[in-house]
């Protein structure tokens, strides 16, 4: 069942409130975030995310995409009709698809223990596209989780979410201090590999034990902080026979994660 009254003004109280979710501050204050597009909404429904509202345009209800989503709708989620130009004010894309959802932010993690054997740790990764791509690649490589250290871009940024293509709900993705992450990983003997151009670093191909690993990737410009390199079990690097000075951090992470892929 769909609400028949259509929200037709950008000054509508709910619309103004939801528009604030386009900012990290607004998301933190309200405890909600936005996703848009059929694929992301479908993945969120499949993986039982906590929906607050599902907003659709009248035109979207006539589309085949709506038929695809409708079969996943829980009985307590009643879509709200929003005029196309009003929904556009909530979209971070040039051309929206006609469907946007408001979801609850996951509860803050106070303590964490690894339930798997393969993790990606991120130290101040700041580009949304890089973060989203690394989450998606971690999913593809069969990793158990991505741990976001301090200084890393907000994972609920729209560009991050779109780059994950829904993988954010396929594995554990949490914000945690790297101090706590290191302690928890070491407690269960998961080796920590920090990427570094360092005199003690070894070529990643030389690693023979691949059943468990935690890989630390760093900031696009500065790399992994020296502290995390020193606390890691081993510094590793990717040999580059060509003339490039460096690799994009998401590309490098992909190469390393598939070294340990199941």
From TrEMBL:
One Pfam family hit: MRM3-like_sub_bind
Residues annotated as domain RNA 2-O ribose methyltransferase substrate binding: 34-109
Top-level taxon in the UniProt lineage: Bacteria
InterPro entries: Alpha/beta_knot_MTases (IPR029028), MRM3-like_sub_bind (IPR053888), Ribosomal_eL30-like_sf (IPR029064), rRNA_Methyltransferase (IPR051259), SpoU_MeTrfase (IPR001537), SpoU_subst-bd (IPR013123), tRNA_m1G_MTases_N (IPR029026)
Biological processes, Gene Ontology terms: methylation; RNA processing
GO cellular component, one term: cytoplasm
Protein's UniProt keywords contain Methyltransferase: yes
UniProt keyword terms in alphabetical order: Methyltransferase, Transferase
GO molecular function, one term: RNA methyltransferase activity
Entry similarity comment: Belongs to the class IV-like SAM-binding methyltransferase superfamily. RNA methyltransferase TrmH family.
Name the UniProt record assigns to this protein: RNA methyltransferase
Organism: Fundicoccus ignavus
Lineage: Bacteria, Bacillati, Bacillota, Bacilli, Lactobacillales
């Amino acid at each position: 069942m769909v609400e028949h009254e259509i929200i037709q003004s950008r000054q509508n109280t709910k619309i103004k409130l939801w528009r604030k979710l386009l900012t990290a501050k607004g998301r933190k204050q309200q405890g909600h975030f936005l996703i848009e597009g059929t694929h992301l909404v479908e993945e969120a429904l499949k993986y039982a995310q906590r929906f607050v509202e599902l907003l659709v345009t009248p035109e979207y209800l006539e589309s085949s995409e709506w038929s695809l989503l409708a079969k996943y709708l829980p009985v307590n989620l009643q879509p709200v009709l929003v005029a196309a130009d009003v929904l556009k004010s909530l979209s971070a894309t040039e051309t929206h698809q006609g469907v946007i959802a408001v979801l609850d932010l996951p509860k803050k993690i106070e303590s964490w223990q690894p339930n798997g054997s393969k993790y990606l740790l991120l130290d101040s990764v700041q580009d949304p596209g890089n973060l989203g791509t690394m989450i998606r690649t971690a999913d593809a490589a069969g990793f158990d989780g991505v741990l976001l250290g301090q200084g890393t871009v907000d994972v609920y940024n729209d560009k991050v979410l779109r780059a994950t293509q829904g993988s954010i709900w396929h594995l554990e993705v949490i914000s945690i201090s790297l101090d706590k992450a290191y302690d928890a990983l070491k407690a269960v003997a998961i080796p920590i590999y920090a990427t570094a151009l360092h005199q003690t670093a070894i070529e990643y191909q030389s690693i023979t034990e691949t059943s468990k690993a935690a890989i630390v990737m760093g900031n696009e410009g500065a790399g992994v902080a020296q502290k995390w390199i020193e606390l890691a079990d081993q510094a590793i690097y990717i040999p580059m026979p060509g003339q490039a000075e460096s690799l994009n951090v998401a590309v490098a992470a992909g190469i390393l994660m598939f070294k340990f892929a199941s």
